[in-house]
């Protein structure tokens, strides 16, 4: 069954939002990307330029990537961005109240047919459903970073999500080249992050307690397991602002180890403009 979605809007053009927009456009869908102001849009254009370059280097052929990226429409008016969308994928920063406020703002602006999907990494869709004004047409659609290669799309509804909507979103994931992972119940962190986050947290704890430095921790993991990347290489791919936000939220709930990692990321990396692969430097340096 095809998804029958024709137009897609992505809310938030950060690291993953830009990748979602590119992947969707690169598979033939008209895409509108919303971000808060012209400066954010300019940054988004730069991210898309970098994505086209990386995609081309990895696959050896620019192909449709350039026209796909160039064809993406940008908007700084939230209601205009969703006015004609069949599917809205929300990828705004990982903050419950911020996400709820975004959904409240678009609940009446989007057509009645529109399906809303959150790309939240840590929040349950049930935490957001009431704010959407359409809990039967709302669910989570979670992408991994480096989307065209690590191409999983986790689809997780709530008890109120219409099963037909789940089926349509699974079909959409396939239409944009993803491997849909259908979850049968809500799970914080889905499948991927339920496995990944404890691993990354363990690495962060080793680092901030001075047990070993990041390259040593990464090398240990790669050599001993045969994995292609260590935890701090993965952090760089994710982008260091996301783990900082998550660690800060945990610190606010009294997690001292998370607080130590958040402070370390802020002072050693974020305050110096080292954001991970997207900026060319994080725990490691990357050529442009």
Please tell me about this protein's structure.
The chain is of the alpha/beta class and 288 residues long. The protein folds into two domains: 8-182, NAD(P)-binding Rossmann-like Domain (Rossmann fold), CATH 3.40.50.720; 195-279, N-(1-d-carboxylethyl)-l-norvaline Dehydrogenase, domain 2, CATH 1.10.1040.10. It is 47% helix and 12% strand. It is built from twelve helices and eight strands. Strands 3-2-1-4-5-6-7-8 form an eight-stranded mixed beta sheet. Strand 4 (87-90), helix 5 (96-106) and strand 5 (115-118) form a beta-alpha-beta unit. Helix 8 (192-208) packs across helix 12 (256-268).
Radius of gyration over all CA atoms, rounded: 19 Å
The structure class reads: alpha/beta
Q: Profile the largest sheet.
A: 8 strands, mixed
**Overall mean confidence score, pLDDT:** 95
CATH-defined architecture of the largest domain = 3-Layer(aba) Sandwich
Order of helices and strands: EHEHHEHEHEHEEHEHHHHH
Q: Quick one: CATH superfamily of the largest domain?
A: NAD(P)-binding Rossmann-like Domain
Number of DSSP strands? 8
What is the CATH topology classification name of the largest domain?
A: Rossmann fold
| Share of β-strand residues | 5-15%
What is the CATH C level class of the largest domain, in words?
Alpha Beta
């Amino acid at each position: 069954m095809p998804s029958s979605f024709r137009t897609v809007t992505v809310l938030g053009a950060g690291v993953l939002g830009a990748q979602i927009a590119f992947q969707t456009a690169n598979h033939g869908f008209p895409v509108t990307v919303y971000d808060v102001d012209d400066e954010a849009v300019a940054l988004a254009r730069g991210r898309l330029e970098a994505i086209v370059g990386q995609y081309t280097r990895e696959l050896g052929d620019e192909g449709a990537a350039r026209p796909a990226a160039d064809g993406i429409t940008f908007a700084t008016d939230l209601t205009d961005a969703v006015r004609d969308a069949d599917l809205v994928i929300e990828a705004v920063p990982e903050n419950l109240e911020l996400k709820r406020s975004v959904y409240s703002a678009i609940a009446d602006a989007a057509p009645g047919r529109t399906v809303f999907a959150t790309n939240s990494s840590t929040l349950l869709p049930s935490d957001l459903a009431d704010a959407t004004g359409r809990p039967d047409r709302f669910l989570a659609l979670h992408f991994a970073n480096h989307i065209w290669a690590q191409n999983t799309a986790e689809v997780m509804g709530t008890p109120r999500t219409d099963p037909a909507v789940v089926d349509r979103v699974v079909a959409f994931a396939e239409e944009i080249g993803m491997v849909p992972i259908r979850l049968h119940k809500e799970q914080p962190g889905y499948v991927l992050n339920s496995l990944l986050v404890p691993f990354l947290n363990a690495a962060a704890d080793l680092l901030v307690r001075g047990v070993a430095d990041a390259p040593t921790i990464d090398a240990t993991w790669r050599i001993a397991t045969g994995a292609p990347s260590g935890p701090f290489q993965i952090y760089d791919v994710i982008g260091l602002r996301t783990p900082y936000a998550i660690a800060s939220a945990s610190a606010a709930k009294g997690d001292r180890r998370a607080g130590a990692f958040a402070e370390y990321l802020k002072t050693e990396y974020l305050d110096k403009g080292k954001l991970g692969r997207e900026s060319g430097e994080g725990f490691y340096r990357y050529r442009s």
